[in-house]
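hey
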């Protein structure tokens, strides 16, 4: 659907789910995708399935590891045109049950991990005079959670929205754009427990004006638009891809 001919795009969390569909779209658009994920087995299977792809193991919860892997990628490839941050984890504990460790881990992987990949590539994009960053957030970051992810998750994703706007504001002068996509209930392993509970599933579907959950490819399409030249003047947009839950 979007043209990525000759481009190399990094996608975190691309072993499966929304990230995998995004990676697929880049290859289908003629680009090379670099899959970054903590899951080596699934990551390599996805790499082999997609063809024009590479795989690097990364732990988004470990800043030092992120900087090391990003530096390796920038030295291995002649050019990198975009960074798409999809990797993340859910946190489902009710507020009264959130431990300090749960809070810290959720913020570290979802928010600090996103900050660190952006920070690691930013000087390269400045030197290159441009680059497109897309962060995958969540409706939870706008409405205080409530579908599956709770306070720690919602806070991490609200942070991603703030980070996205800040990078858009500061990076614009270097030709760097930064946008975010906020999905709602999407059919991936992250939401398996919700899909398999008929009562909760019906409750959540009832909140979605389109009356169904999304397939991962439907989220990937919006991510790919933001990552492509078709969105050349779009910067700092927090785009809802949620079947109509957030009407702002
Ligand atoms: N599925 C939904 O309903 C939904 C809704 C809103 C937002 N999101 C967001 O979309 C993104 C993708 O979620 P998904 O539904 O495809 O989930 P998923 O669990 O299918 O995929 C997440 C990927 O991130 C990787 N990952 C997890 N922790 C990591 C770490 N520490 N380091 C590196 N990689 C790591 C996993 O291995 C996996 O490949 C997430 O950021 C999630 O918060 C999902």
């Amino acid at each position: 659907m979007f043209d990525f001919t000759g481009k190399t795009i990094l996608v975190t969390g691309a072993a499966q789910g929304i990230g995998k569909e995004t990676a697929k779209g880049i290859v289908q658009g003629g680009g090379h995708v670099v899959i970054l994920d903590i899951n080596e087995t699934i990551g390599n299977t996805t790499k082999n399935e997609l063809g024009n792809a590479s795989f690097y193991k990364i732990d988004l919860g470990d800043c030092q590891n992120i900087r090391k892997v990003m530096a390796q990628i920038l030295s291995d490839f002649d050019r990198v045109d975009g960074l798409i941050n999809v990797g993340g984890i859910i946190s489902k504990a009710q507020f009264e049950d959130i431990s300090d460790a749960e809070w810290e881990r959720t913020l570290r992987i979802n928010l600090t991990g996103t900050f660190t990949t952006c920070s690691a590539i930013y000087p390269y994009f400045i030197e290159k005079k441009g680059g497109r960053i897309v962060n995958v957030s969540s409706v939870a970051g706008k409405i205080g959670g409530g579908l599956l992810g709770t306070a720690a998750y919602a806070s991490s994703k609200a942070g991603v929205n703030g980070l996205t706007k800040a990078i858009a504001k500061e990076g614009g002068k270097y030709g760097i754009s930064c946008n975010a996509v906020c999905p709602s209930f999407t059919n991936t392993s992250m939401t398996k427990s919700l899909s398999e509970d008929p009562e909760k599933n019906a409750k959540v579907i009832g909140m979605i004006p389109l009356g169904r959950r999304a397939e991962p490819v439907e989220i990937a399409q919006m991510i790919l638009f933001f990552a492509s030249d078709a969105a050349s003047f779009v910067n700092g947009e927090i785009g809802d891809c949620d079947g109509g839950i957030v009407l702002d």
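The CA atoms of residues 127 and 174 lie 8 Å apart. Strands lie at 8-12, 32-37, 53-57, 82-85, 131-136, 176-183, 238-241.
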